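Hi R.,

Here's the input for the 1-O-phosphono-alpha-D-glucopyranose complex you asked about:
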Amino acid sequence: MSHIKTAVFPVAGMGTRFLPITKSVPKEMLPLIDKPLIQYAVEEARAAGIENFVFVSSPEKPALDDYFRTNYRLENYLASRGSTDALRQVQDVTLKPDTYWITHQIEARGLGHAVWTGRAFLRNEPFAVLLPDDFIHSDRPAIGQMIDMHARIGGNMVASMDVGRDRISSYGCLDVEARAGRCLSAGLIVEKPSAAQAPSTHAVIGRYILQPSVLEHLENAAPGVKGEIQLTDAIAADSAKNELWGYEFEGKRYDCGSKVGFVEATIALAMQREDLSSELSLNTSRTAGFSMVA
Ligand code: G1P
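And here is the predicted structure with 1-O-phosphono-alpha-D-glucopyranose in place:
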């Protein structure tokens, strides 16, 4: 049984990097093959024992609710045709009404503000945050790896990986004081430092296990980098009370907030799918002048 029961999924962003498709299809609904990006994050959380799902979305995105809600018309249609596999697929992705909530972040005021917007659905206990843009392909769900470790060491925990000095300014950054296996004890966390001023090259990746006291720091938080209320700043403020850990997860992370990352994730997933990989390899080897690296 997981001690982390609830996960927050901040999905209110406009997805401007993926225009024009995101004019009508929310970025988190874009498919990695045949499932929307958000589904992978929900599956990761579910596999880690998380039971409650809080989506911080925006009113312009009815597709999210359509996806997770029961679609009786479709289910009746598939049942009447005896399409049991398709029916099971549809039912598998449907969430029970009392296990998920969609709330709206009306103004784009940053990640910290998005998490704070979900506070009414969080009890006074640690909770997870998953950013669906960070797609992590692993045998054991990345958030599950963190939950197991968090059960032992507590505190606030963020997923981390070394991204190198040339890329650290796009991320939250940990000042690492000590390491024990995959756990990094961090004295400081800063949002998007310049390459020259970054205390390390250990970046924050979009998986968090946070203490409820982080929400208190978000309550009256001042805007930080980019004029937005940063989750990183609230975690930093909470480090007086709760120890801060980076966790170097096992698995490969794809930045699906970028087009290249999205395409790479699609290729990697396709090459691992039994129903696609052999035909795909055959077709690509037939295509002169084009080689595919999984
Ligand atoms: C957000 C966080 C940042 C983190 C990143 C991971 O930034 O603010 O600390 O490193 O996600 O993907 P964003 O990518 O929304 O600018």
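One thing worth noting: The longest strand covers residues 172-180.

Cheers,
M.
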